[in-house]
Amino acid sequence: MILRRPATIVATLALCLTAAAPVAAQSPAASASDAVVSADWLEQHLDDPSVRVLEVSVVPGVYDRGHIPGAVNVAWHTDLVDPVRRDIASGESIQSLLRAAGVNDDSTIVLYGDNNNWFAAWGAWVLDVYGADDVRLLDGGRVKWEADGRPLEVAPPTPAEGSFTAAEADGDLRAFLPEVLAVVEGSDQAQLVDIRGPAEFSGEIFAPEGVQELSIRAGHIPGAINVPWGQNVTEDGTFKSPDDLRALYAAVGIDGSQPIITYCRIGERASLTWFVLHRILGYDAQVYDGSWTEYGNSVGLPVENPAGTVWGGQ
Amino acid sequence: MILRRPATIVATLALCLTAAAPVAAQSPAASASDAVVSADWLEQHLDDPSVRVLEVSVVPGVYDRGHIPGAVNVAWHTDLVDPVRRDIASGESIQSLLRAAGVNDDSTIVLYGDNNNWFAAWGAWVLDVYGADDVRLLDGGRVKWEADGRPLEVAPPTPAEGSFTAAEADGDLRAFLPEVLAVVEGSDQAQLVDIRGPAEFSGEIFAPEGVQELSIRAGHIPGAINVPWGQNVTEDGTFKSPDDLRALYAAVGIDGSQPIITYCRIGERASLTWFVLHRILGYDAQVYDGSWTEYGNSVGLPVENPAGTVWGGQ
Amino acid sequence: MTVAVPPSDDPAQGGVVGISGPSTRVVAQRLAAGGLVAVVLVVVAGLLVGTPGQGVPAATSLAIGAALGVVFARGRFCFFCILRDLIEHRDSAPTYAILAALAVGGVGYAVVFGMFLPDPSTGRLPAQAFIGPVSWVLVAGGLCFGVGMALSGGCISALLYRMGEGYGRAPIGLLGALVGFGLGFLSWQPLYLATIVRAPEMWLPAELGYVGALVVHLGALGVLALLLMRWLPPTRPTETARPTLGAVYRRVFVWRWPALVTGALVGLIGAVAYLRVAPLGVTQQLGTLSRSVMTDAGLIGDRLNGLDAFSGCVAVVGELLVDNGWLVGAMVLGSFGVSIAGGRFRITGVTLRNGTTALLGGVLMGWGAMVALGCTVGTLLSGISAFAIAGWVFGAAVVAGVWLGIRLRLHTI
Amino acid sequence: MTVAVPPSDDPAQGGVVGISGPSTRVVAQRLAAGGLVAVVLVVVAGLLVGTPGQGVPAATSLAIGAALGVVFARGRFCFFCILRDLIEHRDSAPTYAILAALAVGGVGYAVVFGMFLPDPSTGRLPAQAFIGPVSWVLVAGGLCFGVGMALSGGCISALLYRMGEGYGRAPIGLLGALVGFGLGFLSWQPLYLATIVRAPEMWLPAELGYVGALVVHLGALGVLALLLMRWLPPTRPTETARPTLGAVYRRVFVWRWPALVTGALVGLIGAVAYLRVAPLGVTQQLGTLSRSVMTDAGLIGDRLNGLDAFSGCVAVVGELLVDNGWLVGAMVLGSFGVSIAGGRFRITGVTLRNGTTALLGGVLMGWGAMVALGCTVGTLLSGISAFAIAGWVFGAAVVAGVWLGIRLRLHTI
To answer: Of the listed A175, A264, A270, A272, which one is catalytic?
Structure first.
């Protein structure tokens, strides 16, 4: 086994640093090695029955034409969410989904997907909400795996039914609109992190080109700090080192001393930043999955719109 | 100028029909003649200083190239709404707007616009919310006026400053999300009227083609009754007779015996149906201006989606 | 520029190949003086915009009047002179200015009408356009106006622009017109009841639509243009020369502008005036003044039955100065400024004889313009441009009146 | 008529004193053929009025397009030809057509603006006028457009009217423009976010008022006119002759119209277009077509951020045929009709070499027109007439591009 990346050293270091940091993390601290697996590690554990791999890709069909051997396909828009009301899937559904994927309570779940793990991160968050113990992301996701020329397979696996039991949803990981409003109005203390691009944040555009989901108001939630999600990763799509990540957020005043709420447009990329802040850095963080499509469409809520763009139907 | 059209006869007839109608209106009763003016009536009152005409069109620029003589232009996306937060304009803004348009407290305000008076009806609702006494719609709007070959003028008028004073917003005319939710959950009694097309109502589509505003969930508010807005008007865009309107809504169980809440996608066409129910038929009705873009984007709310269409990013 | 140099019609100014002319210094002085007039006009316009009760319409009227004064003066757009050239000298070239003005004006009005009244077949008339009643009173007014033109040496608009060039008879003729208006008001009531009340306001687009009316309008003008070609003088050869600033100066300020250019500009100004303020006319202010004096003197009542219901270049009740006053005043000033700039301003004296004819002619014109609801500018130009049959009828009567006047040698008295 | 005969610029058509020409019968046939085209246009306009979804705006666009095609063709209002005459042949005469168009257009826009938006200092912009954002992207677009003009032998509007004259490279260049538009849409998003979103929409009247803006506008054009006088060729002598119908025919249908007349008409048509339908532009239909194809192919999204919020000659979403399509089509037909009537229609073939340059030039023009929100007609003519700084910036960049193209001899490839 050759580890090209000194993951364990980094992880150990990170752990030390975290322990040495003056902040007291409020939720259970997690080391990077707990949260992220390298492609090497995964390739070596493909046959490990305690490791279950799930693919959550945005683009339909990529799984079918080739996936990491043994990975089970998860459709984000039906399996992870309630398709009728806007909500994450129920605990019951998640339990059936994971059991069908052969997940037991003590399984290590490794998620990956296309597009920099956007929806894989969303999946990790949903699974965390329902109490899955050991949920990790494949560093670099599908893109890195393919770039490395690692093997794929086409036939879907047929895992034996698992025994996973979903817990009650953990409210500490999820923020709803009233909680966000309490922060905006100052009755609660938290830092809002907007992970959308600067043009959306400033209100210059309503949504990027080609994107359908939008609000009829431009701008961002008052007080939010803009850290586009892409800053979490390096050029090849793998996460930056915990040190770099810590420095990145410290530079904008986010050091884990206050609770954090991340949001984006519909909640998925916010999960990626949540993953970094909560799972890698061990900060107290929640995903506001209503995000801008809920907030910006809600009647009467305060908005910051520096660009002043006005909705005119286009 | 010779008017060949027997305007007074039509008006008298309309008045008689309304008076003879057998329903007892619960809110201050309004006859059609109070709420709607015919093109003939307006043409005869163009020089009447107590009548102020406002154009609220969706398409920018149509006013500039020709409008009803003396009409003042109102831009729906800046003058009637708060351009930053999603809300109707403040009472202060409406007061300045109307004063600049030469409106006094005792003025008769006639609104008209393109597209079947969609945004003119929205304007009528906003003005009613802020206590304007005598707000009417031009029957058939701009389209009918043009089809009749009636005169237009190009230069905008320069009315003397009016003395209109806006009242506090009238909550009886406007429904917010919590009130709608109370109805859905059965703690309040009201009839919800969804005025969108049947395909949107059933969840077959998220929004019509070419429309940018949408929710990431399809369907409608549980318990809502679908009466597309177009059923309120005849082929030439004028309102159906009060009797026909009363029969139309009675057929789906809406007879004014319960409060009514109307909604659409962003609130403007719902105002047209509100105008019919409240101003023409005299029923107790509110506009839920958050409408589907708020409701369908809100996290965790119950939705009815008969078609079962699932949001997949498109 | 490929625009060829038009020959001067005025040999005194250098004639066909006149390159020599006033010195550069003199020209600079003239231009400075003309520029001063322009500055005065701009300042007055600026003041008007901020004056309560005047505002943008008054300032726009001022600008339109000044433009009209310049074009009338530089193109010698004098209906009497043009008709005299045609009738007496058999030279139809200047007449093309009128035809061009009507053609361009018609196109302009069609463009504006289509905005104001999309469907002309509804029985409505477009707001304010000079579409007057057609009756024998209109014919009488036109004949009288034509004879008056011959007597006083120019129609009312010509007297206005020539006043700016120093023409001494002009103010006397205009004074006569004021008296004539008064007579018109006195005779209005019986004429109205006898005829005008039943006279139709005939408007081509009501029958033919805008496209049809425009086709008939341009067709009629085209036929006239063809008929008049036989009296066109030969074109004169032009100089071969490098274009210089001096040549530009002469073309703009000294030589008479080509008929087609003058006419097109008049038509355009008319369309813009209708679009922005009101149809072009020059008698409204005169009539208002006259009416006010008559009313104050108790000679006529507050209400002139029917008159206030017609659209036309008619007097306004209860005001002394109307937008039209700014237009008329600016016309005189515009003509004055451009005459000075071209070194053409020259005060001419008045004799008892030609002063008397000017006065009498003015009276005739005043009466005619009053009962016809406008003069050669209002009823003829603005009326025909608006596709009003009344405009053509009045125009024919005016031509007949001038022809009669010239045959009777009234213009040589 | 006192209008002097302008010399023909085309010796093949009879040259300076060309009286001899085609026989009366041939002329009659040509006029009949041209008349047929006019009849077709009138019939189509009539049908459009009654067609749901088209109506008067479509018919008006058709009429405006036909008029533009006639004027462009008869006045050779081709920006590249005009600039080549200036840069390569040191002949500034044709340039005066552009200056006249801008001067008349500016006056016309001031008249219309004053109606639409009485007070320009409120921070609002008049509806729909082409007042675009000023940024380096605009300069890049203009340069690219200018070079493309040199390569393909004419700007987009010139290709359109010359297509009506049978110019074989025109359709190829237009095809290239469609591709160029597509590339423009692909590059829009990064350019918008990088620069255009923060680029100011600078509008003179917002700072100076309408009068001030007009003074600056006409002053700038006047200075240009003075500077260009040194490259004016000597005027050529004209014939001395009785005006005949044949002479009228030649002036209207055969000889190139004088620059000032052509320019003034272009400016007028532009003002009328803005008053009645939308600012003049010829790229909206092309852009819409290109955008529709790209959207259907999934190459660009339904929404192009920012683009739909700007006023300019930009593509419309969700439609295939817009009013502008009738304008563009009628332009080709108008040019075709008038060419036939003048016996000037001539199909020219295409070689592999000049077809390739036409295509490449078209691509460059398409990209430039897309990112500049319009071409020489929309952004330059309509923009400058609307007192948009963007118009001047684009114009300067286009001139620089053409100059570069001519220096590199791209037009001779």
So the answer is: A264
